[in-house]
From TrEMBL:
<dbReference type="InterPro" id="IPR036691">
    <property type="entry name" value="Endo/exonu/phosph_ase_sf"/>
</dbReference>
<protein>
    <recommendedName>
        <fullName>Craniofacial development protein 2</fullName>
    </recommendedName>
</protein>
Amino acid sequence: MALEDEPLRSEGAYHITEEERRVSTISTRSNEVVGPKPRGHPTVDVFGGERKVSCCKDQFNIGTWNVITMNQGKLDVIKHEMTMLNIDVLGISELKWTGMGHFTSDNYHIFYCGQESRRRYGVAIIVNHRVGKAVLDYNPINDRMISIRIEGKPFNITVIQVYAPTMDAEEAEIVHFYEEI
């Protein structure tokens, strides 16, 4: 949205004014080192949105859902909704399962992490079969955080599902959560 007197900006423009662009260019160039460029992979071009992140050569849809509790039968409802809404990757919070692990149900791969003994909190990431074939690994961090790594082109993708404590939680729990991030 532009104000009446402002010109429209193109997609990917990060500088608001010409002055900021000049200052940024000057400060960037003053830090450059004269000599051969380092070897390795070039940095990814993030301007303009020309490159699309892909999985199995196609784009995919990501969603999130606070299920409040995932009792028996609710997984079937979630899989049905994922199919109906064309969701390939779904982050789940407040799962309330114990333990951690992964399993396959029909054509879906479920990666989850909860508390060891109490049915409290818990997170999961559910992917359909197409994306499941591209999952490189998963990392069950704790009962509030989990991540998966997906093989993609032009680069791999990490999806992180987080269930943050509310303001009703104890101060120590909130501090610990943000330290873990």
